[in-house]
């Protein structure tokens, strides 16, 4: 081979190498530009997801990432606290259900306290119940009417998270009322 042909081969080989290197640089630059654009987009999205108090006064991307970490930790802490509260409320609810089932099945503790006493006009009935427990007051009045008592007044009040009903009734005629028997009948209606 002649020297001129060798030069052309070397020259064309150098040109191909230069073109390949140039193409690699262009590709690398484009890939890097695309990567930076994607990172900018992701950082903008992150900044938009964070509450204002976490990014206020912070401009650097590293600060935004750190505040995102802080925000996630705060959210995790709130989730744990709410989970604990939920479990406590479930346990409290279950205890109330168990307690009310025991009361109704065993009749250990009455849901209401009934006091019957004689007064000048006739009979005074005081019913004290838990605020959550409900009974029908009209049933109590029906028992009083069946016993021959005329209801004069009924006053209800909330005292220390309990309901207190005071029913004042008069005795018709010259009848004598057995307060213990009346209390028993009233307790049976609850």
TrEMBL record:
A Pfam family hit: HLH
Keywords: Coiled coil, DNA-binding, Nucleus, Transcription, Transcription regulation
Listed Gene3D superfamilies: Helix-loop-helix DNA-binding domain
Residues spanning the membrane: none
Compartments reported by the entry: Nucleus
Residue span(s) of domain BHLH: 23-75
Annotated CDD domains: bHLH_AtORG2_like (cd18914)
Xref: PROSITE patterns: BHLH
Coiled coil stretches, renumbered: 65-92
One GO cellular component, as annotated: RNA polymerase II transcription regulator complex
PANTHER family: ACHAETE-SCUTE COMPLEX PROTEIN T5-RELATED (PTHR13935:SF106), ACHAETE-SCUTE TRANSCRIPTION FACTOR-RELATED (PTHR13935)
Quaternary organization: Homodimer.
Record-given protein name: BHLH domain-containing protein
């Amino acid at each position: 081979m002649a020297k001129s042909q060798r030069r052309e081969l070397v020259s064309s080989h150098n040109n191909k190498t230069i073109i390949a290197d140039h193409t690699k640089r262009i590709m690398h630059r484009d890939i890097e530009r695309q990567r930076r654009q994607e990172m900018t987009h992701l950082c903008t999205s992150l900044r938009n997801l964070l509450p204002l108090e976490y990014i206020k006064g912070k401009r650097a991307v590293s600060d935004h990432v750190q505040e995102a970490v802080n925000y996630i930790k705060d959210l995790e802490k709130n989730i744990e606290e709410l989970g604990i509260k939920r479990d406590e409320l479930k346990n409290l609810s279950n205890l109330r259900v168990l307690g009310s089932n025991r009361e109704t099945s065993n009749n250990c503790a009455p849901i209401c306290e009934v006091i019957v006493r004689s007064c000048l006009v006739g009979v005074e009935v005081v019913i004290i119940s838990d605020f959550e427990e409900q009974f029908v007051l009209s049933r109590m009045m029906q028992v009083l009417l069946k016993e021959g008592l005329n209801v004069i007044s009924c006053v209800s009040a909330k005292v220390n998270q309990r309901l207190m009903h005071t029913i004042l009734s008069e005795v018709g005629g010259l009848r004598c009322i057995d307060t213990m028997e009346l209390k028993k009948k009233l307790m049976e209606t609850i």
